[in-house]
Amino acid sequence: MVLATTEQIAGYEIIETLGIVLGNTVHSKHLGKDIAAAFKTLAGGEIRSYTELLTEARNIAIQRMIAEAEKLGADAIVGIKFGSSSVMQSAAEVLAYGTAVKIKKI
Questions:
Q1: Confidence (pLDDT) at 2
Q2: 86 - beta bridge partners?
Q3: 44 pLDDT tier (thresholds 50, 70, 90)
Q4: Can you give the three-state secondary structure of the chain, one letter per residue?
């Protein structure tokens, strides 16, 4: 599966647009890590537990988006975008979406 944030893929022609595909997940951290993160905000710097949380959530969202595209018979997903939002305290949703397409090499 070819993934692109652009609308076109160099060296390929889009021969069919199959539709919008998306993947999302909501993740939360363990209460103990949340308390440790609160203390980290006092000192400043990266809060690694939240960085790991969002990285893991983004990867899951991408895999779910790819699975939707594969069900449609897509070769690629173009125009990929990401969104995130706080669902509740210590829980974040990550959304990945794009357009599933069939492509051929030029």
A1: 98
A2: 92
A3: low
A4: CEECCCCCCCCEEEEEEEEEEEEEEEEECCHHHHHHHHHHHHHCCCCHHHHHHHHHHHHHHHHHHHHHHHHCCCCEEEEEEEEEEEEECCEEEEEEEEEEEEEEEC
| Other Cβ atoms within 10 Å of 26 Cβ, number | 15
HEC secondary structure over 87-99: EECCEEEEEEEEE
CATH number (domain holding residue 36):
3.30.110.70
Lowest mean pLDDT among 27-31, 37-41, 70-74: 37-41
Domain count, the chain: 1
Give yes or no for residue 88 having a pLDDT over 60: yes
Report residue 74: phi and psi, to 5°: -75, 150
pLDDT for the residue numbered 47: 72
Range of the domain at 62: 2-105
